[in-house]
Amino acid sequence: MKNFMDRDFLLDTDTAKKLFFDYAEKMPICDYHCHLSPKEIYENKPYENISEIWLSGDHYKWRAMRSCGIDERYCTGDATPREKFEKFAYALQYCIGNPLYHWAHIELQRYFGIDTPLSAKTADDIFDRANKAMAEGDFRPQSLIANSNVKIVCTTDDPIDSLEYHKLLSQQDLPFRVLPSFRPDKALNINLDGFEDYIRALGDAAGIEIKHYGDVVKALCARADYFNEVGCKVSDQAFEYVPYREADEDELNKIFRKAMKGERPKQKDADKYRTAVMLELGKKYQELGWAMEIHIGALRNNNTAMFNKLGADVGFDSVGDCEIAKPLSAFLNALNVNGNLPKTILFNLNDKDNTVLATMLGNFQSSETQSKIQFGPAWWFLDTMDGMTAQMKSLGNLGVLGKFVGMETDSRSFTSYGRHEYFRRILCALIGSWVEEGKYANDEEILGEIIEGICYNNAINYFEF
Q1: Are 156 and 182 spatial neighbours (Cβ–Cβ below 8 Å)?
Q2: Closest by alpha carbon to 328, among 294, 351, 298?
């Protein structure tokens, strides 16, 4: 029997161990998509206890706790930090097969120096030991990022954001850079409540009175220019499916005016508006040299009662099953035919779409950038051992795995960089197995280049950080 999550965790072959310890482990981290708060990074306040780091805002943990019948008071409510930690530990011991179990123990080992498995019976002791480690060490956000060997942090920011904390951070002498990412979802979601209030706020931020559809585009492009000045290199859009419906300007203005009067458009009309805005944004991203991330497949806010009580992003989202191939192809083609297709990273949340995305890439590659169109890493519900392996196998089967931009955390936690180690171990295990099975040449020079590229170098070159 192997020891629990020891030094060779997941590294089942000699080649995997060599690739990990000689190449992957030492590489810095480029976290090109996350939900860390630039305000928290700038203020750099120490955390009071492990529950504050682990359980504040982490919907992965809350979902596991709810599945074990734990009351909401211990997830998002007013229970004490110790009580919340004890309840999480109780739930974690039943999470066999869940990456949450591995992530938690990697974080305990790397950040807190604790090798003891976490369970209900060890919770109190580990809570005390972790808090002692925090009291004796430096667990402020900036130190956690720096000590994790992170060089680039791309936060997720609304176009109306002032980016004041990014500006303040750029003036500090830090061993990493914190850059904004442009997330225009609220301007695209014309069919959701609050759209008209948001558009007014967007106009105020851009200094533009928004009366027509075209004014929305002008305002977003003005804000993109502002983000670019602050160092932005990445845009990010989230869709259940990528919309593609054509419409002329008169029709778009009619749809927009109705929405600004509080009338929610039908789905097809909302898709016409989103298509038009996204085509203009894609053109702008290409002009700025940005990468366009598109996250596809989340079915959000399924539990109305809990949405009304707690709001969005608290663990009541799941995987959608829309057909995505035709509209995605039409959207990318419409940009490409006019020379407006930017560097693009496609993320899917339903693994039924792995082959769709892995083959879509080859339709629109060009000599502008190596692997200009990327198959993004396994994301959210696919961020598992099986999900990551399947994504890389699909890309290996149908594209060029060696030019993959690799992992990002997509997290709100400053200790979640252990997920990069998890990904790197899985990567090395997969490639190591192919080498030992005689499926790829045992050429250490090129293998090392591939591993270092996927772990860090490819992303740095792709985004031009």
Answers
A1: no
A2: 294
Q: Return phi, psi of residue 233, to 5°.
A: -130, -5
Query: φ, ψ for residue 369 (rounded to 5)?
Result: -150, 140
Amino acid at 192: L
Contact 418, 105 (CB under 8 A): no
User: What is the rounded distance in angstroms from the CA atom of residue 361 to the CA atom of residue 341?
Assistant: 12
Residue 113's CB: how many other CB atoms inside 10 A?
11
3-state secondary structure of 82: helix
Predicted confidence (pLDDT) per residue in 80-115, tens digit: 999 999 999 999 999 999 999 999 999 999 999 999
Label each residue of 13-57 as H, E or C.
CHHHHHHHHHHHCCCCEEECCCCCCHHHHHHCCCCCCHHHHHHCC
What sign results for the dihedral spanned by CA atoms 273, 245, 288, 151?
positive
Q: What is Dmax (Cα atoms) for the chain?
A: 69
What are the structure tokens assigned to 6, written together?
């020891």
- 229, 252 in Cβ contact below 8 A? no
239: helix, strand or coil: strand
Residue with tokens 């985004």: 463
* Nearest-angstrom CA–CA distance, 98 and 108: 16
CB 176 within 8 A of CB 151: yes
Q: What is the C-alpha separation between 115 and 117, in angstroms, rounded?
A: 6
Which one-letter DSSP state was computed for residue 414?
T
Q: Which string of DSSP letters, residue by residue, matches 147-191?
A: HTTEEEEE--B-TT---HHHHHHHTS--SSEEE-EE--HHHH-TT
DSSP-derived secondary structure letter, 64: H
Strand partners, 343: 291
Nearest to 275 by CA among 327, 338, 346: 327
Other Cβ atoms closer than 10 A to 167: 15
- Tens of pLDDT, residues 22-33: 999 999 999 999
What is residue 193's three-state secondary structure?
coil
- Tell me how far CA of residue 426 lies from CA of 150, 160, 190, in angstroms: 20, 38, 40
- Cα 172 to its chain centre, rounded Å, is 25
Angle CA(396)–CA(398)–CA(400) in degrees, nearest 5?
50
Q: How many CB atoms lie within 10 A of CB 378?
A: 26
Q: What angle do CA 355, 360, 362 make, to 5 degrees?
A: 115
Q: Locate tokens 């009304």: which residue?
A: 308
Mean pLDDT over 145-163 rounds to 98
Nearest to 335 by CA among 240, 244, 213: 244
Residue 3's contacts (CB-CB under 8 Å, 6 or more residues apart) are: none
Report strand pairing: 318-319 vs 298-299: antiparallel
pTM value?
0.97
